[in-house]
């Protein structure tokens, strides 16, 4: 495949094409969009060998550059993984189409009729890292909600992504959705990504998905509005009145079930009374699951195997089998710590004390708060939203797991008969 | 009054104080907040003379700097205007408190209970120009929705605003709302405004209110999320099938009722057939109301008194008795023009043709679309929303007139009994 440099590529003209296509797409019926997604799913399955061949190129490049194993695993496709992509598209077909919904309507005393309807945002700019599944997932959610999409994936997966988009384009030719509704920026040049940041006239929202560095680069430099997703420094607070079994099983689930995801726990905050009574069980359970501890001084006194937590550890997404541990005198101290270091993603309290639980739910500022449950549930699928485009950690527009409605806005439609003020 | 320079002022520490106060404020009941707003209204009325005295200083400065009359009028207060402020606060007392509303709730198959509740955003940063009423209006809406506010008003009104906030602070001492929930940046230094742009840790949203230059400066430089408000380049499209009386009365209302506001019309687009039949009536009506025309070549052929519109006139907010006029062959050309030059605020079609109306409503991308009614209705009060914090011209979070719900976000609260994934 030939890649383009940022001089050869014209991101703005791609965005303009996407905007034109979005106009046509927004007028299609739910049935027409569903039919198109089904054709895309079929096409991806039919062309899985072509995709695997392109993936081989990326894997070979990755091996040459000595990428680490977990990274190579995320990059690597199999027939089954490609079939999972198409299964994902078929699931999006089943989701309710939010566009066209009448959100509210009323008639003013003067007879002017007011109707608020849900409409697509227009053009979504998706900036993401290695996982090629985002190419398919984001395209499916965008098209179903009537939006065009401009895709800028990570360099390490560029051959795979390019071929996936080629297959999508072939598929779209058999549908009512214009090919231009899916734009792929075929460049590994960072300058191409930067061009996306300021195309406010043509792109309605940027959604970065990936690590903190990527997300911060977009937030700090984009004038296009951004939907921030995913950085999760999640805490489990084990209160004085926590049930031991619930506390330990939730802690282990939140830390070890999938340590690399954003809803995994990174810090456990323990009430000193509970800690004194249960330190042995806590330690042996963490040991059994291979979790190493970075603790405050109090922790080190009781758990000699722990290492001393530095300031930066309280803010760290370890994304592996390490946990920070802090001992507190009371729930207020726990909430203050979360206020200071949390990323407003998911926070849990384990307690049998209803007053403590309600204080936590009321005063902690985050998208998702849990009482006696694991932070791992913050996920569109697990909470019953269907597929998600990401998990918002911001407060405006959408908070928490974002399904199709997060990709829409509204219009007020007023009908009069010569009404003036 | 002594003003501070940007070296003496610490905007960040004010924002931190606001954030702390927001925690306390967010836990107050609706009754406690209403009681506080009533006390503030009483206090403003009791202290109207103090406020007028401060206003005299700003007016004297304004005269010295030869500000134009309309500007001086916006700046100048009277007893009646101050009583209008307090009346506004009493109206906010009557509005429903959106916080605490349960937006949705469900129970997963595994028994985990999910509840989505509406909560305050936290801290609102308000950046605005001359009108001192914004100081009171924005404070009322912020406090009612449980948010702290950081106010940065225009330099020309700084003495007035400072004294208004002093009065508010005196009033707050008699209430449960901490004084620190209302912060005033007592500096005319632009560097102080710029400090607000990046205080992402402490300020949840910035709302600029004023002219296009102010709004663009905030949008282009802030890393704090922005709610864009108010720049309105609104169009009236007079279709081939427009009723003459409706067309002329709506056009005059939209252009001349209050030409300086954002929902006033700036361009009229006229179908060529209607234009040919009605040019005389159109011209005489505009003349009668003192409206001057900047038209395309076609207009100039028929209306010799018009001046030729330059490219920039199509994008101009005249905010006075000037209108741009373009003749089109069909509705598609009208929609294309609006796409190119509109600001996605308010757009109207005048027609008796239902198909044309529905095409316009479907394909024009704006917050508010009108069929046979004036764009002047895009206003929280006129549409029945109650007081508004501004009119959003963006698509994310809130679109169109923004009432109290636009100042809130949500939290997902999950209650389990040891639930793990």
Automatic annotation (TrEMBL), chains A, B:
Its main location: cytoplasm. Belongs to the gamma-glutamyl phosphate reductase family. It catalyses: L-glutamate 5-semialdehyde + phosphate + NADP(+) = L-glutamyl 5-phosphate + NADPH + H(+). It is found in: Cytoplasm. The gene is proA. One of its GO terms (molecular function) is glutamate-5-semialdehyde dehydrogenase activity. It comes from Litchfieldia luteola. Residues 9-287 form the Aldehyde dehydrogenase domain. Its EC number is 1.2.1.41. Pfam families: Aldedh. Pathway: Amino-acid biosynthesis; L-proline biosynthesis; L-glutamate 5-semialdehyde from L-glutamate: step 2/2. Keywords: Amino-acid biosynthesis, Cytoplasm, NADP, Oxidoreductase, Proline biosynthesis. The keyword Endoplasmic reticulum does not apply. InterPro entries: Ald_DH/histidinol_DH, Ald_DH_C, Ald_DH_N, Aldehyde_DH_dom, G-glutamylP_reductase_CS, Glu-5-SA_DH, GPR_dom. Catalyzes the NADPH-dependent reduction of L-glutamate 5-phosphate into L-glutamate 5-semialdehyde and phosphate. The product spontaneously undergoes cyclization to form 1-pyrroline-5-carboxylate. The keyword NADP applies. This is Gamma-glutamyl phosphate reductase. Transmembrane segments: none annotated.
């Amino acid at each position: 495949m030939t890649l383009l440099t940022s001089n050869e590529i014209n991101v703005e003209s791609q965005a303009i094409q996407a905007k034109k296509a979005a106009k046509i797409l927004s007028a299609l019926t739910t049935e027409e969009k569903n039919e198109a997604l089904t054709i895309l799913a079929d096409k991806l399955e039919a062309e899985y060998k072509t995709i695997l061949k392109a993936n081989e190129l990326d894997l070979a490049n990755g091996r040459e550059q000595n990428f680490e194993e977990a990274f190579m695993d995320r990059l690597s496709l199999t027939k089954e993984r490609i079939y999972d992509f198409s299964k994902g598209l078929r699931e999006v077909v089943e989701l309710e189409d939010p566009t066209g919904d009448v959100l509210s309507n009323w008639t003013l005393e003067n007879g002017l009729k007011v109707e608020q309807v849900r409409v697509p945002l227009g053009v979504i700019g998706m900036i993401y890292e290695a996982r090629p599944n985002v190419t398919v997932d984001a395209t499916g959610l965008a098209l179903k909600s009537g939006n065009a999409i401009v895709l800028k994936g990570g360099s390490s997966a560029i051959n795979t992504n390019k071929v996936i988009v080629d297959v999508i384009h072939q598929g779209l030719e058999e549908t009512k959705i214009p090919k231009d509704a899916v734009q792929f920026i075929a460049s590994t040049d960072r300058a191409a990504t930067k061009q996306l940041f300021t195309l406010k006239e043509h792109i309605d929202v940027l959604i970065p998905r990936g690590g903190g560095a990527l997300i911060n680069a977009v937030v700090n430099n984009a004038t296009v509005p951004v939907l921030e997703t995913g950085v999760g420094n999640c805490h489990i607070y084990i209160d004085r009145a926590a049930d031991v079994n619930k506390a330990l099983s939730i802690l282990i689930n939140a830390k070890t079930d999938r340590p690399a995801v954003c809803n995994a726990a990174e810090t456990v905050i323990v009430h000193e009374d509970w800690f004194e009574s249960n330190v042995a069980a806590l330690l042996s359970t963490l040991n059994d699951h291979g979790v190493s501890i970075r603790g405050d001084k109090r922790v080190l006194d009781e758990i000699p195997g722990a290492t001393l937590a530095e300031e930066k550890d309280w803010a760290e997404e370890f994304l592996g089998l390490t946990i920070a541990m802090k001992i507190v005198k009371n729930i207020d101290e726990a909430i203050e710590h979360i206020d200071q270091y949390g990323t407003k993603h998911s926070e849990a309290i384990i307690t049998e004390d209803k007053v403590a639980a309600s204080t936590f739910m009321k005063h902690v500022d985050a998208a998702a708060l849990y009482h006696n449950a694991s932070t791992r549930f913050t996920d569109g699928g697990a909470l019953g939203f269907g597929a998600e485009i990401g998990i918002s950690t911001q407060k405006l527009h959408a908070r928490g797991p974002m399904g199709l409605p997060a990709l829409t806005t509204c219009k007020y439609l007023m009908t009069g008969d010569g009404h003036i003020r």
